[in-house]
Amino acid sequence: MRIKHVLSVALIATLFLSCGNDKTDKSTTEDNKKTETDFDFNVEQFADIKILRYQIPGWDNLTLKEQKLVYYLTEAGLAGRDIMWDQNYRHNLKIRKALENVYTNYEGDKNTDNWKAFTTYLKRVWFSNGIHHHYSNDKLKPEFSQDYLKEIMSATNTTLAGEAFDVIFNDADSKKVNQAKGVDNVGLSAVNFYGPNVTNADVEAFYSKMKSPNPEKPLSFGLNSQLVKENGVLKERVYKSGGLYGSAIDEIVKWLELAKGVAENKEQGDALGLLIKYYKSGDLQTWDDYNVAWTAATKGNVDYINSFIEVYNDPLGYRGSYENIVQINDFDMSQKMAVLSENAQWFEDNSPLMDEHKKKNVVGVTYKVVNVAGEAGDASPSTPIGVNLPNANWIRAAVGSKSVSLGNIIHAYNNAGSTGRLKEFVHDDEEYELEEKYGQQADKLHTALHEVIGHASGQLNPGVGETKETLKNYASTLEEGRADLVGLYYLYNPKLQELGLVDDWKKIGMAAYDGYIRNGLMTQLIRLNLGDDVEEAHMRNRQWVSAWAFEKGKADNVIEKVTRDGKTYFNINDYDRLHELFGELLRETQRIKSEGDFKAVEALVEGYGVKVNQDIHSEVLERNKQFTSAPYSGFVNPVLVAETNDDGEITAIKVTQPDTFDGQMLDYSKNYSFLPEDN
């Protein structure tokens, strides 16, 4: 699960936790608090995107063997990059190849509005790993005509015909992931997890017949396959060596085997061996064996996330998107924050959950702050800021989980410059000063609590199936909201000060609550077009949590809607009561998950998390027009350059920074394209 960066660096970071992986896109919906540094974090800005770069602190402290491990794991991740493109949409690879050929070979007039619109469109496609927006899931709309594209294709001897050309301009496949209520979500989603004519009912019927050998350790059916119909019969096309995506997987395996050869310890090497075995076989039992081994391998300076993991892109929550994150431990910060995992049982015991939903023995929760050395697939260019894995409930209960905060990614966000949005949307000077002084610390703690305590807390009732089966298309947003609520509940608690994590727990909690409500009810709306429903899982969860608390606290005026000079603000009058409301909602969300109560989750999400107040939305968009900073941010990755001797042995690995976004994207296409255009 994961957190993504979408809000203010102050609390939006927190908001993008990944359960497995939110891409809680730590967005710039508010302000970044910049500290002094000579490093230039900014690369460029286009459309609604800002491209940043990040450093790799601690690189020179690694041994050459450890640097080799990082290098091999990074190369393994990039080898599978095109898998994510194909998973996102069946024509993405064809379209990308054609657009890149035009971009690199066109010799005509590059000062026209049409050419500028073409380059912007291509950059948006690169950023989203395809033709659908990375966050809204809407198809990207080119601001140039079909005739112009045909003209520049002809000038560069570029071929793109039929459906792959037409879809750029028509209304087909308009939504990558469609989460609307009461429709055939699979049939109306363009994501390439399902073949033509496969329906919601087909998927549910197909997997209802599958039984795990051990019901107490259910396998992750559907995680690593595409479900298609052949002659009217449903069948899985498994991602594995010799199977779907086999040519890229073989390249991934090549680099993983090199990584295994320089593993830091036996546990890490054994886990890598199981991951290799899984890629070769596609066997889901091996996947579970690997996750058990990977979760237990906690020693060493280097760790990684690699494979088909997060299910946010599947409207029904079965299939995993390919991703890779290579991490170097930040031992100083990890030691400071280890107190959370060491006290995980206290948090569970003192939560407002019903007793039968509390874990009696929280095991194996590890929390580390890490520095990213490379990312690929669903983690790049838009990256999470926090990750908690594995996602299987039974492994988390029996073995534990790993939670990480991506420290250098958060640092880059915080140092990319301020936007001014915060001052526009805070209710008063007190709220602004709280955010300025405590916002970053509140964000970091919310991320930690969300990942370490939130995703590790609670348990399913005996006999209740996995949430993707019981809660269906609402499973992801409920889980993210539940983990957010755990963080919110404990952010306003003296225990944090007792543990030495904060100097003033009440001020930290107040800043966190201000930021969450402000974002959930207003500022995150800058990411939506007027009239749109909220569909992304994390945006939904922030809205339903905030809107529920606002409504339930109306009688006591807990959160006051204020209109001043024609502008709307939300002011928290009673933080103590809001803390209680968050606890009540946390108790209810855990009940829904534990009991598999579909009707209740549907009422919660549809009632509070989907529809947007159009007057407020229109106002927010108008107030936001004064700010030029893009609402979404992402990254180019540092480039690891291996230096070798005459015998081909690596003698050193240097870290270099790419100059441009387009340069890195073209380099990736040149060096890491291991899939045919049609799979």
Give the key terms.
single chain, 679 residues, alpha+beta, 26 helices, 45% helix, globular
Give a short summary of the structure:
The chain is of the alpha+beta class and 679 residues long. The chain is 45% helix and 14% strand. The two termini are 28 Å apart.
Q: With helices defined by DSSP (H or I, 4 residues minimum), what is the helix count?
A: 26
Distance separating the two termini: 28 Å
Structural class computed from helices and strand pairing: alpha+beta
**Largest beta sheet: what is the strand line-up?**
7-8-9-11-10
> On the 0-100 scale, what is the average pLDDT?
93
Instruction: Describe the sheet with the most strands.
Output: 5 strands, mixed
- Strand content is 5-15%
Principal-axis shape: globular
Describe the structure.
The protein is an alpha+beta fold. It is built from 26 helices and 16 strands. Strands 7-8-9-11-10 form a five-stranded mixed beta sheet. Helix 4 (92-105) crosses helix 5, helix 19 (475-491) packs antiparallel against helix 23 (575-595) and helix 22 (537-552) packs across helix 23. The protein is globular. The two termini are 28 Å apart.
